[in-house]
Write a structure and sequence with these properties.
About 50% of the residues lie in helices and about 20% in strands. The chain contains 14 helices and nine strands.
Length: about 350
């Protein structure tokens, strides 16, 4: 008799589970009829060349934390530092195939991907100060460039990230622009940055950031340029111990992903990604500024000879750089682009 009761109880329980399962599947069927699908966790993989100890790595972790919190766990960012997902070009090519990846990129790369006017933001000595950068990214001109980039398959998620002023680290002294003559200086592999250094008299050499330490060590190259956080974070000062604070580019950077992938998200998801990216950018800029003085002092403490150029020396750099802005035809720039951008950034 007891056995019959147990069996009966099991049958009732099974029927209850089946009944509940039927009820839980009904909304999904209804939503399917309405053209909707059950929400799955959205994952964005961010690959980048920097280490997690650099300010940009810390700010990316902030972005990941903010997105997870504000999406209540329905969205996530997975970070791949130190070029674990490949170089910038590999990642951008993956985006053009619609994959859920993002990376750090700049106007110089966007010029190579079909939006030539974007490249000017990486021109040498374009900006006088950081405020001009932040004015520019809110301008109609900048929004127009973003739209053109989307037509090419790439979506900018955030532009308000200061990567840092880019300086030049070499294995022999550079005290004036003339000292750069013939020196092989590593730059990211794009036309804008290559020619931007060539006009200063150097012989630019494009290569992945991950290869720079060994190239300096073997004297395949004579120097490299980057913000202090990256120069120190990659330990390049161990194999090149002369630094000139030329600030040839005030490097604000952007985070870019596949436009097709972005458009596959709901409007709410898109807004969460954009809002948290901008909030993380503000955090990045705070820690970036605090870190620069610390990195500079650590480099001095570790034997780096630092040149802080006079205004006269800087004028020599700027004079050489003017030739870059006469190359508009080579870059495919719009007529009068330099003046257009200077006006958009609020420069006098």
């Amino acid at each position: 008799m007891k056995l019959k009761k147990v069996v009966a109880s099991m049958c009732i329980a099974a029927l209850s589970v089946a009944s509940l399962a039927g009820c839980s599947s009904k909304p999904a069927d209804d939503s399917a009829n309405q053209g909707e699908t059950p929400q799955e966790k959205v994952t964005l993989q961010i690959g980048f060349e920097n280490s997690m100890t650099e300010p940009v790595g810390q700010a990316l972790q902030k972005w990941a934390d903010l997105l997870a919190e504000k999406s209540e766990g329905s969205m996530e960012i997975v970070l791949y530092p130190d070029s674990q997902l490949g170089n910038k070009t590999d990642l951008i090519d993956s985006m053009l195939l619609g994959e859920n990846v993002a990376t750090l990129a700049d106007g110089a790369f966007y010029a190579d991907y079909g939006v030539p006017d974007f490249g000017i933001v990486f021109g040498p000595f374009l900006f006088d100060d950081w405020d001009q950068c932040w004015t520019l990214i809110e301008s109609d001109w900048y929004k127009e460039q973003e739209g053109k980039l989307e037509e090419k398959g790439l979506k900018i998620l955030a532009s308000n990230w200061a990567y840092g002023a880019r300086h030049t680290l070499t294995n022999k002294p550079v005290n004036t622009v003339d000292d750069l003559a013939g020196m092989k200086i590593r730059v990211p592999s794009n036309q804008i940055q290559s020619l931007g250094f060539d006009v200063l008299g150097a012989a630019s050499t494009g290569m992945s950031l991950g290869d720079v330490y060994q190239a300096l060590q073997t004297k395949t190259i004579d120097g490299a340029e980057n913000p202090l956080a990256t120069l120190y974070g990659r330990k390049l000062h161990e194999v090149a111990q002369y630094l000139i604070l030329d600030a040839h580019v005030l490097n604000f950077t952007t985070w870019v992903c596949s436009n097709d992938w972005f458009n596959s998200l709901t409007e709410e998801q898109q807004n969460l990604l954009l809002e948290t990216g901008k909030e993380a950018g503000i955090y990045n800029n705070e820690i970036q500024q605090d870190a620069e003085a610390e990195y500079l002092q650590m480099m001095k403490d570790e034997g780096v000879t630092v040149v802080e150029p006079t205004e006269e020396v800087m004028n020599g750099f700027r004079e050489k750089a003017r030739a870059f802005y006469d190359m508009g035809d080579k870059f495919g720039w719009s007529e009068g682009l330099y003046d257009t951008v200077r006006a958009a950034m609020g420069a006098e």
